[in-house]
Write a structure and sequence with these properties.
PH-domain like, disordered N terminus, 3-stranded antiparallel beta sheet
Length: about 160
Amino acid sequence: MDDAPPLADEPLTPLDPAYVRLVRLLTGIALAVPVIAALALEVAQLLPPGAVAVPVVLAAGWLLLRLPLRRWRARGYSWGTDALRVVRGLWWRRDITVPFGRVQHLDVTQGPLERLFGLGTLVLHTAGNHNSSVALTGLAHGQALAMRDAIRAHVALHSR
């Protein structure tokens, strides 16, 4: 072990700004059902005009604008010479540090929506059963690949 300062003292690097647009799209998809239901009730005239549709549309608009930005601000990472720290969560905050010496293998994943926004997810797999992998979402795809390669080089250098 070396005497490197703990990562908890390091400032967090924010995720790629495109992550906000991705979360906004996913939030919009999730909000489509209640908004459509509220508009259907409005068209059916089962309740007084605007009783359901107006509050639902206003709440959906507020969530669509604020929630993705708050999620982006609540996430970040820092990495040093020996470990990666991943912080996330609005209500349940998770602060995970993965020492590179514990890494078994690394993945970079990219779903169709991440591909649309040029994002990727770096996944570090460690030994063990519970919480044996840590995912860092919201990275630019090129950044995720570069981090994977740098961690892989570190692991290869120190495993000799």
